[in-house]
Amino acid sequence: MADFSFHHGGVSVPSLDEAITWYGDVLGFELEKRFYIEAARSHTAMVRKGPLRFELFEVEGAACLPEDRRHPPRDLQTHGNKHVAFQVDDLESFLTEMEQKGADVAFVVREAFGNGCFIRDCAGNLIEFVEEANP
């Protein structure tokens, strides 16, 4: 079996500059590089936080995110990629920080199997944060 590891997730956004700022201010990502993808007509940026990378695409003439893709349970009713998820040590303190930063908290889960939440980025894309249950 070929060996591989996770490199990055990616989202399309209406404003690359706004997204770079949002991912920096809210989640602490730093701009790694900016470039243009001619075939996709996309102004693109790679942002990074430690080993985590996120690719942001501002594509000329792109459609807005459909409303159903902005709510986790409804989003699952459409096939395709859903979201990326990051682990946090303490969901409650993470949620407090997100509220202080004005993040759009879309959905919170508190279950026996673990706690988590989804926030929406500045374009409405869902990002999950999970706190794993103690064994």
UniProtKB/TrEMBL annotation:
It comes from the Bacteria. Residues 5-132 form the VOC domain. The keyword Zinc does not apply. Gene3D superfamilies: 2,3-Dihydroxybiphenyl 1,2-Dioxygenase, domain 1. InterPro entries: Glyas_Bleomycin-R_OHBP_Dase, MMCE/EMCE_epimerase, VOC_core. It holds the Pfam family Glyoxalase_4. Keywords: Metal-binding. This is VOC family protein. It comes from Novosphingobium cyanobacteriorum.
